[in-house]
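Please review this one.

:::
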Amino acid sequence: MQYQLRIYDVAPGRMDEFLGIFPQVVAARRAVGFDVVGAWTIPEENRFVWIIGADQPIDELAKRYYESAERKAIDPEPAKLLDRIETHLMQPVPLDEETPG
């Protein structure tokens, strides 16, 4: 499984509007095979953070997502509500259940 951390700086005064369309973003992502692990806001920074996962290469699914009818139908265009988009592919770290010591 691949994971991607997505950090958005939402344009001032646009967070409620972004959160209003976010369920459509989630549906469109899921329609092409993404798993949405979770989403959070950092209100004092006007920031939105979420993690997506996929069993297929994320870049391939992203291409399908941006070309999909579901994504094209989202109004307003999500990127127009954002001042900055930062993404990071993440590698899982195995967790050992034993505590050293």
About this structure: Residues 15-31 form the longest helix (17 residues). The two ends are 31 Å apart (CA to CA). The chain has one domain: 2-90.
